[in-house]
Amino acid sequence: MSRTFxxxxxxxxxVEAEIRNVLVKEGDVVREDSPLLEVETDKAQxxxxxxxxxxxxxxxxxxxxxxxxxxxxxxxxxAAGASxxxxxAPVVAARAPAPTELKAAIAPPVDGSPVAATPSxxxxxxxxGVDLRAVHGSGPGGRVTDDDVRxxxxxxxxxxxxxARAAAPAGPAKPLAAVGLEPPPLPKFEQWGPVERxxxxxxxxxxxxxxxxxAALIPHVTHFDKADIxxxxxxxxxxxxxxxxxxxxxxxxxxxxxxxxxxxQEYPQFNASLDAGAGELILxxxxxxxxxxxTDRGLIVPVIRxxxxxxxxxLARELAALAPRVxxxxxxxxxxxxxxxxxxxxxxxGGTGAIPIINxxxxxxxxxARGREEPVVRGGQIVPRTMLPITLTFDHRVADGADGxxxxxxxxxxxxxxETLFVEW
Amino acid sequence: xxxxxxxxxxxxxxxxxxxGGYSAAFRCAELGLETVxxxxxxxxxxxxxxxGCIPSKALLHVAAVLGEADRAKEFGVDFGEPRISLDPLxxxxxxxxxxxxxxxxxxxxxxxxxxxIGGRGAFEDSRSIRIGGDEPQVVRFKHAxxxxxxxxAEPSGLAITSERVMDSTAALExxxxxxxxxxxxxxxxxxxxxxxxxxxxSRVTLVEMAxxxxxxxxxxxxxxxxxxxxxxFAAIHLETKVAALxxxxxxxxxxxxGQDAQAFDRVLVAVGRRAxxxxxxxxxxxxxxxxxxxxxxxxxxxxSDPHIYAxxxxxxxxxxxxxxxxxxKVAAECIAGRPSAFDNVAVPAVVFTDPEVAWCGVMESQxxxxxxxxxVAKFSWAASGRAATIGRSDGLTKLIVDAATGRVLGVGITGPGAGELIAxxxxxIETAVTAEDLALTIHAHPTLSxxxxxxxxxxxxxxxx
Lengths: 425, 465
Description:
The structure holds 2 protein chains of 2 kinds. By secondary structure, chain A is of the alpha+beta class. Helices cover 26% and strands 24% of the residues of chain A. Chain A folds into 3 domains: 3-94, CATH 2.40.50.100; 119-161, Dihydrolipoamide Transferase (Irregular); 205-423, Chloramphenicol acetyltransferase-like domain (Chloramphenicol Acetyltransferase). Chain A has helices at residues 119-128, 146-152, 163-167, 202-217, 230-245, 252-266, 312-327, 333-336, 401-416, 420-423, and strands at 3-6, 16-22, 29-30, 35-40, 45-49, 54-59, 66-68, 72-77, 92-94, 220-228, 272-275, 280-283, 289-291, 293-294, 299-300, 303-304, 341-345, 364-368, 372-378, 381-395. Chain B is of the alpha/beta class. Helices cover 33% and strands 24% of the residues of chain B. In chain B, the strands form 5 sheets. In chain B, strands 1, 2, 3, 4, 5, 6 and 17 form a 7-stranded mixed β-sheet that branches. In chain B, strands 8-15-9-10-11 form a 5-stranded parallel β-sheet. The model of chain B has no long low-confidence stretch (mean pLDDT 94).
């Protein structure tokens, strides 16, 4: 019995596809699920596996040909394993992600007339991946408006298309529009096993949006280095008890903050925000540093003000007071706003380094991992030194690699000569 | 590829320098793509600028001036018999009109950094074009745009070698003013050039196979033009073929069906245009050709070869420069990764005769054939104040709307300035406005543009009854 395999429904309202490659020849014996054809749709290049095991009797298509759903692709002759005749195969392995999800299947226009919409609305629909023919037009004469199109994406009318644009602060002139990213549709995971859907908490959602915004908008560069903190460590250890008597828990973080603040005075472009709309760099004449704090609910970044003007002991006191407040969810909005630069210390959890995402709209973020004793060559001798891996991640639109390296050095220089953190230069 | 070939690597290679080609190249350059145009003549402009739209409109302007001067007798102004000097006329057309625009395009190309390579190009494969001539080289491209356009069709029965038998390109050179001119073809090219020569003083005989002039257009739109042609031309033979042409001494003898053999001083053959898609080496690519040699393209102007796009006349009807230019921008934007598509609803068509005939969108005859439910409103220029002041009450404005929604589907206009007036119709159709929108928009009085508003109003009032 001969069986014919037709172009399966490709989903997402697609009605046709172009044959890119025929991967089998007439006479070939193929196994079920072995690749048969590559097709390209408007949205993706897709490999179609054989739904049958058997001998390829006839190939009905050739590369370059456009075929409609339901059109015969390959006929199979008899071979082992009888299967249902003429069945469309599941489509797997979509390689190129679709720009956006189509919300509705194509409803062919009744009389072949074009959709009533202005050219700019039609362009918007293309940008958002909305099939206009499936959108109900609310305008006069059934005209589809911009709001109708946006409504069809599932977003409220009036929402600008790109999330990046939506979350960006209102600025004049040129918005950074090119970032507009709509996530491609997810596959139906249920086909591979049971799943569970969990709604995101408010904090998780905020983090997700801000991180996606930053990652999409800012070209990140990361510079790696190590600081020899043996002397700093010794100083912390020596002063620990004294500080304790003054009610201060002395930690490395307060020294990091101080070193960063002093280095920022030397390299003010890292204490800034880029106004892409105006084409200007906004240099901040104040130095409020954010410090990433892991909480049960997620990442929170409280801000310590005027770090450049405060002695290390004062910073340590503020840190000691702030961190528990943040962990208990008692931080005020003011505790969390106005940062100019962020320090994240993941050392407590181990690791040899991490590349953090810049806290938009800041320009840079300093990441430090765990300081470890390492064999280091000093004057031809191998000596044990405590080395702190640091990463400086910054916005390449604002600064170049050499600037980043110099700025990182300015921090390291201070960490390696901790006395400078007390005399401040 | 042969060792020693000069190889140029570019993002985009555009084959052909007409409106489709240069528009695609300019848009590509604007989008940051390194682009070259391969054009045999090494000058941008194509058939449109050198042997089509522009020179024909220059000559039609001359014809219009002659016609107006003649009509002025009606209101008591007599300029006397015109004296026509062909040398200054040709010089004006070639230098002041075509030359000026040609230099303008060259400077735009320079400003945008688009290089024009002079020579005939043919694909070697899906990624390269070999160019012969004075600048032999191979251009390796990431994407190519075929914009090779069209040439006048040469019906085999009439193919005789005589400089007295002209195609539109030759006729636009105005070699002389023939006493007796036979025009084969009653489409827009035959009518436009027939009117030019009639205005210059030729006795024009026009032969058309179909049962009316401008086949395809609604008959009521064509009627004022037919009447005018009946006055201007010595004879019009419809549903008639020219069986053969023969050079006899200084004349061409034409065997016109149903007529005695007639002698003409020149013959213009204007029976359509054919796509230029042969000898492009397309067999080395995956580009597929459809009927009549047209390149098959999708909505994004992409051919069946993923690296190669095609725009303009080579992709089929309607063969109009403005369609090519829009397609060109779509192709360029798609190459640059933008979500562009040729989704235009209306491509306006204009016949620049006296009177002009212009239409766009769905025509009444098409709607009737397709069984679509439409309402049609006509406004005769006999009721137009502006038409009366210019002595042209023979015009007509016609509006075709969807019966259910009132959406404007098509517009046809006949009369002086129809080619300019149709712009509003194109905007109306493209932006899906309703007849009510047109009726409620203030149109300046007294102008010919009021016709569209009047036609729309008559539909609304029809609804009130």
